[in-house]
Design a protein that fits this description.
alpha/beta, 273 residues, Rossmann fold, 2 domains, Alpha-Beta Plaits, four-stranded antiparallel sheet
């Protein structure tokens, strides 16, 4: 069993990437690579598709690592744990959890609803393998999107009732609306990451989670349920968690979102394992 000081869990949107530009500051990539070089696992845990995450994050990170074998310490959990990307000697290994795949007829009708009734405000994501998502169109006003999203959620719930779909739910977040299996969430994703660490014979002294939304808190709740030591760094808008009665403390950064991530990483260097 190899003992490491830290394992690092990162949400992607608003934590690694800029929410508007969908780009990542190269300084963040440099900090992630430092952790990998120290032998510390790095986890990207997101509702995004693996394709999107690869195009917007992974391809840049992979191009910067000095040794591809460092990627063996990296794992990506996409689509709320429905798709996992692992590496073995730098080679990709992709796992799709077929138990979480949404019914094809529901996906088709979801797409039809979006394209017929919400085309101006949203786009249906065709690259998802497990869940179904309609994302806010770039540059569409956020307030108007929220109003449209409310209407879409109502239509999707009606669709689920008509189709008598069980085990799935309509899930809305800051920029997207999903139909997903009830076990497709960041708690399930965290469970799968812990299994991956056990398979690699890695024991972690302390986990560090960096997130910016209420759904990221599921990671902390799962780690706490497993009696693991962790620190949760919240880089999002503090107003959204104001009324939350959390069973664990949060660490806040002066800057928000990806700038907060960079602030924390540069101010908390770790010693080599």
């Amino acid at each position: 069993m190899r003992v490491v000081n830290h394992a690092w869990f990162f949400d992607v949107d608003g934590v690694i990437t800029d929410l508007q530009m969908k780009k990542t500051d190269p300084k963040i990539f440099a900090e992630l690579i430092k952790r990998l070089e120290k032998g510390e696992p790095v986890v990207l845990i997101t509702g995004r598709s693996l394709d999107w995450t690869t195009k917007n994050v992974l391809k840049f990170l992979i191009s910067l690592v000095p040794d591809e074998k460092l990627l063996d310490r990296l794992i990506v959990s996409a689509e709320f744990g429905g798709v996992l990307l692992k590496f073995q000697n730098g080679e990709k290994d992709i796992f799709i959890d077929r138990k979480l795949v949404a019914p094809k007829n529901v996906l088709e009708k979801f797409k039809e609803i979006v394209e017929n009734d919400f085309y101006d405000s949203m786009v249906f994501e065709d690259d998802k393998l497990v869940i179904a998502t309609a994302e806010k169109r770039d540059n569409y006003p956020l307030k108007a999107f929220r109003e449209a999203q409310t209407g879409l959620v109502d239509k999707l719930r009606q669709l689920m009732d008509v189709e008598k779909v069980h085990g799935f739910e309509v899930h809305a977040d800051s920029i997207g609306t999903n139909i997903r299996h009830k076990n497709a969430n960041k708690s399930t994703a965290t469970k799968k990451i812990l299994k991956w660490l056990a398979q690699k014979n890695i024991s972690v002294s302390n986990f560090v989670v960096i997130g910016d939304s209420l759904y990221d808190l599921e990671i902390g709740l799962k780690l706490q349920a497993e009696n693991l030591d962790f620190k949760f760094v919240f880089v999002g808008d503090r107003k959204m968690i104001k009324e939350q009665n959390l069973p664990f403390p949060l660490t806040f950064t002066q800057n928000l979102y990806e700038k907060g991530t960079l602030e924390y990483l540069t101010s908390h260097q770790t010693s080599k394992t």
